[in-house]
Write a structure and sequence with these properties.
By secondary structure, this protein is an all-alpha fold. It is 70% helix and 0% strand. The longest helix has 26 residues. It starts with 19 loop residues before the first helix and ends with a helix.
């Protein structure tokens, strides 16, 4: 977590002042309002960094170890188990009051509702064969061209990510794409990487495109039109540059023709009803976003209506559908909220907030670039969910320029394209591949991500 403290060395002031980080380590008093609003040429405000007391060190260590365990899953325990092991350690050790932990859990209610709705919707679409139909349509219209098939799969992934979140693309679309790629005699890796990378590259087209957006912005989520003004160009840049990087890296695999397919799996009556229901859910989310309402409740309510309509038509109870949803993700997110609350008790997040505000006051453009780049790479060290929670807490604790907040959201969403540890969706993407008998090593992913992610990140940040 201390990676974020590297913000202290991002910008030199006027080329004459000593390093801001060095100055801030000399003072322990929070800057007052006048210090923040001082003229640009005045001395920078002092930042109050927390004293490394034994209790603070233990808290940071517990949070770091729990986050590492969430990523590595020692003993194959579920991710949520490790997150809550760390949270319980904070509570038992008296490092975090129970009231503060409960408040942290309750503050995530909108994220839980949104996640529940999107997971249900994705499972409904998978069961009704929507993703199989989309993948089959791509093979048919590729007309034997591997490059065209790659572009179609990438485009479908962009649409699914935009309106159904990145998890649907990385976890549910991937098996369907793998199946049709094998059927067409294509080498599957380019198409599988397309699913994984577009899931993150298109994550900030809309607020609903990635649950991490809700984590970063919290109750400061911009309305839909404001969001599109801020992120339309960066999204286009990220999607296009990522596609170009992948097409270049897999140019040899995409030079081989694929089989021409004439059959596209047809949708059943309930499949068509599910498609209509998905459109309804998307419209409900967009309406809520346009009106500035929290997204969680409308998403879940509209999804339950869609599921109810399909299950009533099938004359089946929803229990089988519910059993295939990964409900432990909700417990994982709640546990991470508690871990971040524990770090907040040490004063570290307040210090990061003051540091960001001070830097943004002096050099907002450089701060946006630096913050976006740092959280992008930090997401691969600690996963983008905890990184998003930490960064979101920091930027939402006080006044912050919109460009800084937007740059951090881009870094959190796009950074995970560097490595397999960057996001939960990518980890689940690997699990989905292993079920199909396909193996992608961490080194294989890193070789692609080391080219695609920095280029896309720079392009997106340049468009802010």
């Amino acid at each position: 977590m201390l990676v974020l403290a590297a913000l202290a060395d991002m910008v030199e002031l006027d080329g004459k002042s000593p390093s801001f980080a060095a100055e801030t380590m000399l003072a322990w008093r929070l800057p007052d309002r006048a210090a923040f609003t001082c003229p640009q040429h005045a001395a920078p405000p002092m930042i109050h960094w927390p004293i490394a007391s034994p209790s603070h060190i233990v808290t940071w260590a517990i949070a770091a170890l729990a986050t590492a365990a969430v990523i590595l899953r020692p003993g194959k325990w579920p991710e949520a188990a490790w997150a809550w092991a760390g949270a319980l350690a904070l509570l038992v050790g008296g490092l975090l009051p129970i009231a503060a932990a409960l408040q942290a859990v309750l503050e995530g209610w909108d994220v839980y509702l949104f996640l529940a709705g999107m997971m249900l919707l994705s499972e409904l679409a998978r069961r009704e064969g929507l993703f199989d139909t989309l993948a089959g349509w791509a093979v048919r219209h590729a007309d034997g061209s591997a490059r065209r098939l790659f572009a179609l799969v990438y485009g479908i992934g962009a649409v699914v990510t935009t309106f159904m979140s990145n998890d649907a693309t990385a976890v549910v679309l991937t098996p369907a794409v793998y199946l049709v790629a094998k059927t067409a005699g294509a080498r599957p890796l380019p198409y599988l990487f397309a699913c994984a990378f577009i899931a993150n590259a298109a994550s900030f087209v809309l607020p609903v495109s990635n649950p991490a957006n809700l984590v970063v912005f919290g109750d400061r989520m911009p309305p839909l039109l404001a969001w599109m003004r801020a992120f339309a160009l960066p999204s286009v840049a990220a999607v296009v540059v990522t596609w170009g990087a992948l097409a270049m890296l897999f140019r040899a695999e995409l030079a081989t023709p694929v089989a021409v397919a004439s059959h596209v799996p047809s949708l059943s009556g309930t499949g068509r009803l599910a498609a209509v229901g998905i459109v309804g859910v998307v419209l409900a989310m967009l309406a809520a976003s346009a009106l500035g309402f929290p997204l969680g409740a409308p998403t879940l309510l509209a999804t339950l209506m869609a599921v109810g309509a399909v299950q009533a038509t099938r004359r089946e109870a929803p229990w089988a559908l519910l059993q295939h949803v990964s409900w432990s993700v909700l417990a994982l997110v709640a546990g991470l909220f508690v871990l971040v609350a524990g770090m907040g008790q040490t004063g570290l997040l307040a210090s990061l907030t003051e540091l960001l505000r001070a830097r943004a006051h002096v050099a907002p453009h450089a701060t946006a670039w630096g913050a976006g780049a740092i959280v992008a790479f930090a997401s691969n060290l600690m996963n983008n969910l905890p990184a998003g929670l930490i960064a979101g807490t920091a930027v939402n604790s006080g006044p912050m320029p919109d460009d800084v907040r937007s740059a951090i959201a881009i870094g959190i969403d796009l950074g995970p394209n560097l490595s397999v540890t960057g996001s939960l969706a990518t980890i689940l993407w690997l699990v989905a591949l292993r079920r199909e008998g396909e193996h992608v090593s961490a080194w294989q992913f890193l070789r692609v991500g080391a080219v695609a992610m920095p280029l896309a990140l720079a392009a997106a940040l340049a468009c802010l």
